[in-house]
């Protein structure tokens, strides 16, 4: 994952969730680093150096493709506009919605 979580964290999360989401992304980054560090020597001994680097290279290309396709460009956009754009693309988890929207929906259904 490299530097992507550190760069994207400053912009991609709504202000109200930035702390927890940044922590989750940092944890995921360190776990992926741990997986690479723990598996590298075992893979090198089992399949050789060139195949090990090929596997990690393919994973990196897949990650790059994901970033190019799924991560929107936010250069020069104000934070409010970025938040609105990302809310439209979100997976609509309940904790992601604003509290007022949840209360509004509960009031409408009651």
How would you characterize this protein structure?
It is a single chain. The protein has 110 residues and is mainly alpha-helical. The protein has a single domain, classed as MFS general substrate transporter like domains (Growth Hormone, Chain: A, Up-down Bundle). The protein is built from five helices and no strands. The protein has helices spanning 4-12, 18-47, 49-70, 79-89, 99-109. Helix 1 (4-12) runs antiparallel to helix 2 (18-47) and helix 2 (18-47) runs antiparallel to helix 3 (49-70). The longest helix is centred in the N-terminal third of the chain and has 30 residues, at 18-47. It starts with a helix and ends with a helix.
What number of structural domains do the residues give? 1
- Say what oligomer this is: single chain
**Broad CATH class:** Mainly Alpha
Span between N and C termini?
A: 45 Å
Strand content: under 5%
| Fold-level CATH name | Growth Hormone, Chain: A
> Helical segment tally?
5
Describe the secondary structure blueprint for this structure.
Blueprint: H1 4-12, H2 18-47, H3 49-70, H4 79-89, H5 99-109
Q: Gist?
A:
The chain is mainly alpha-helical and 110 residues long. 75% of the residues lie in helices and 0% in strands.
Keywords:
110 residues, mainly alpha, Growth Hormone, Chain: A
């Amino acid at each position: 994952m490299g530097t992507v979580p550190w760069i994207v964290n400053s912009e991609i999360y709504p202000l109200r969730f930035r702390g927890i989401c940044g922590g989750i992304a940092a944890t995921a980054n360190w776990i992926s680093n741990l997986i690479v560090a723990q598996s590298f020597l075992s893979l090198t001994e089992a399949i050789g150096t060139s195949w090990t680097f090929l596997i990690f290279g393919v994973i990196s290309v897949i990650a790059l493709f994901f970033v190019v396709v799924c991560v929107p460009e936010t250069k020069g956009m104000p934070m409010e506009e970025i938040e609105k754009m990302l809310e439209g693309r979100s997976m609509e988890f309940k904790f992601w919605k604003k509290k007022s929207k949840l209360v509004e929906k509960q009031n409408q259904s009651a």
